[in-house]
Specification:
It is built from twelve helices and eleven strands. The protein is α/β, with parallel strands linked by helices. The protein has a nine-stranded mixed β-sheet with strand order 3-2-4-7-1-8-11-10-9. Strand 10 and strand 11 form a beta hairpin. It is globular.
């Protein structure tokens, strides 16, 4: 596969890692950033002195300056783009462009959050407020929570296309089946469609198991220019194409609740990579709620609009026997979800392409390792999307 970032130099991911994840009570978000960053650097085999770019969001008054200081970095290229869960795919796109153009040589992306531990310790509440200023002031009086907005969109898809609760529930069931193969997943016990449907209602039509858990954890990814690859410990995973798109923030400005911004970011990323969705071996999709998986798969082109329910209910998302393994680590629905989870998608995609996923490793029907992967993050309430196509 011939990598084609936007500039002249090829760009590779050479280091990926997670910090301790799940239930991590005795630490700080800064420490999780550092733990993940050290592990990713060790994974690459490169010395920290090569890092001249750093990207982070979600922590500190001057993100990413505070985190860079904590890590002992003095980067000459930085990015603090914050667009919710799609932040990390968008940052990866920016980093790849910067490296390809010669503005940076090695860019570290890092994230860490103690969302779960903070609630347990009373440092914050369970409800995340996005404020009541700007466009949001026109919706806040009506009680729209983040989950309610996703639930409204899911109900619209059900109305338009006949998508069923059972089909949505199958997303959670298959995520749990994949998580059972991941020793680091937060929840691994099997669940059934009936278990999902009979759970406590959170926001109609979402019961508890339609929703991601709240966890702690961090992740880091190191991207470098092609000339650094020969010094790395691991085989490179090439950035083939990226795309980003913002759609709306006010629900009244969202033209169609059944279309996510991945419809644009995916088309751009696949076009730049020169590959078709049908060629992808494994997909990592942002899944704070089951509907996100369904609509993103449609919008990336893995099935036609309105056919996501039928596509998923046949078990296609499973590592074992699935035609398109999706969220092979268990995803946000079962593995972990410490907040802006997009960086975890990139870590899992790289591990799959390198053949390092253990019991959850995907293989082609020929027995070979997967050659192409896509990671697609979603931010806000389908407000933004970032898509990255990766290849060996």
């Amino acid at each position: 596969m011939s990598p084609c970032p936007s500039g002249n130099r090829k760009v590779a991911v050479v280091g990926v890692a997670l910090s301790d994840c799940g239930r991590v009570d005795e630490t700080t978000p800064y420490a999780l950033h550092a733990q993940a960053a050290r592990r990713a650097l060790a994974d690459s085999g490169l010395d920290r002195s090569v890092i001249d770019g750093f990207a982070s969001a979600g922590l500190g008054t001057l993100a990413p300056v505070e985190v860079a200081e904590y890590l002992g970095l003095r980067p000459t290229w930085v990015d603090s783009t914050s667009v919710g869960g799609s932040t990390w795919e968008v940052m990866a796109a920016h980093a790849a462009d910067a490296i390809a153009a010669g503005r940076a040589n090695a860019v570290l992306l890092a994230y860490g959050s103690t969302a779960r531990a903070d609630i347990r310790a009373g440092r914050r509440t369970g409800d995340l407020s996005f404020g009541a200023r700007g466009p949001l002031q026109f919706e806040v009086p009506y009680g729209h929570t983040l989950i309610a907005k996703y639930a409204m969109a899911a109900r619209r898809h059900m109305h338009e296309y006949g998508t069923t609760l059972e089909q949505l529930a199958s997303v959670a069931v298959q995520a749990r089946q994949n998580a059972a193969l991941n020793p680091d997943a937060m929840f691994r016990d099997p669940i059934t469609v009936d278990d999902v449907l009979s759970g406590p209602m959170i926001a109609d039509p979402f019961t508890k198991l339609h929703c991601c858990p709240r966890s702690d954890g961090g992740a880091a990814v190191l991207l470098v220019a092609e000339e650094y690859v020969r010094d790395c410990r691991t085989a490179p995973v090439w950035v083939l194409g990226t795309g980003e798109h913002v759609s709306h923030t006010t629900m009244s400005e969202w033209p169609d609740f059944t279309v996510s911004p991945a419809a644009v970011s995916g088309r751009i990323a696949f076009g730049r990579a020169g590959v078709r969705p049908a060629e992808i071996d494994v997909a990592q999709i942002y899944d704070a709620f089951t509907y996100m998986t369904l609509v993103t798969l449609e919008d990336l082109g893995f099935c036609a609009k309105g056919e996501g329910g039928a596509f998923m209910e046949k078990g296609r998302l499973r590592v074992t026997g699935g035609e398109l393994p999706v969220n092979t680590d268990g995803g946000g629905l079962s593995a972990q979800h410490p907040g802006m989870r997009g960086l975890f998608l990139l870590v899992e995609a790289v591990r799959q392409l390198r053949g390092e996923a253990g019991a959850r490793q995907v293989h082609r029907t020929s027995g070979e390792l997967p050659a192409l992967a896509v990671a697609s993050g979603t931010g806000g309430w389908f407000c933004s999307a970032g898509t990255v196509v990766l290849g060996r």
